[in-house]
Amino acid sequence: MADQEGKGVVKDSRMNPFKDTLQRLRETFRTGQTRPAEFRAAQLRALGRFLQDNKQLLQEALAQDLHKSAFESDLSEIILCQNEVDLALRSLRSWMKDEPVARNLLTQLDSAFIRKEPFGLVLIIAPWNYPVNLTLVPLVGALAAGNCVVLKPSEISQGTEKVLTEVLPQYLDQSCFAVVQGGPEDTQQLLEHKFDYIFFTGSPRVGKIVMAAAAQHLTPITLELGGKNPCYVDDNCDPQTVANRVAWFRYFNTGQTCVAPDYILCSPVMQEKLVPALQSAITRFYGEDPRSSPDLGRVISEKHFQRLRGLLSCGRVAIGGQSDESDRYIAPTVLVDVVETEPVMQEEIFGPILPIVNVRSLDEAVDFINRREKPLALYAFSRSKQVVNQMLDQTSSGSFGGNEGFMFMTLSSMPFGGVGRSGMGRYHGKFSFDTFSNHRGCLLSCSGLEKINDIRYPPYSDWRKQLIKWVLGPKSCTLL
Fold it and tell me: Across-strand partners of 199?
């Protein structure tokens, strides 16, 4: 058993410099150890055992960090990670298989295909809000693709960081895997080193720093960021149905979810119906005293609590608004009479606060959304398919939910990622494998039959020019 300061863990960059760890991992990658399907599968199975053997330990850590119930930890963290592991194990050989591509007449006798090869040494920087899910789901893709991995869990979710640091390296091959601890300064120092791929999940502000560091080495990168996710509620819908769905997704994990509805756009008429429906849903879900509910978490830190409490002064509190600094508790809150220039509409809330902004029509809602940065997710509720489709057709976002919240996050068959300021790149399921793979175009030609190639060599007579143009032209047949 490896202890906390074993080979797989870099606890202090001054005691065990990043340089030594990265060199060890690079040397392992150069040997080709991580490339065979058998080795990749062994690492994935080991990751699955980690999840199974340490389920209670992870639940306790998540309860410590975010006051998550055991069920919520299973639902949003552990089960989704295990599903990704199982899918990768079932699909690994088919994902790794060379992909034939179409050929033209000039390459008809050649073999043309795409080979998915590992990048090499990759860095995964994870956030604190889903500290198991958002750390291990990218790791599944990186291991399945055959990379060596440096994992940087968030130092803010301390309980989960401790488990990932002390226990996870005991399951994975430490010659090609390491966990790095530390705060922002340590991460900045880590980013000074060259990686072959960087996967970052966090805020746009930090994303810019990571992207700038990656640019120094021209390192490809995935940025899973966030932003303000709009939720349009049409007049033609059932207020209680909408309230049930919106309240569950808004207050799940105490609102600390990057794809949670960040604000509602609706008419004043719908607002009058929706507010009491939201109150009914909140009471149904969390009781008369939400603070005592086992299903409502807590704000991650004192810093984030103070930031969120400051947002309670925006607009007018229609529901909730209570807070307790000693418990980092903020009640499920709905704000009305919100002006779009107020702070609650200028930053991602990332907490249990839901502002309602009034619009007069669907067109005004679309315009409101399109004047802002493209969100990570966008939601529209209406009995009219035409309304939902118009919102889908006339806007852009990383993901879209029609009459639904972020259930798309449970689908490994669907890519997840942002667009514009909300991020770049995609993952989940095979999309994770593709993200961590270099798609290498390959053309293998026969070493003989040189006479056939004479057509492409100069000097070019008129008939040869015409023949080459015809062979390469759009009317020339393509063959697999």
Answer: 124, 222
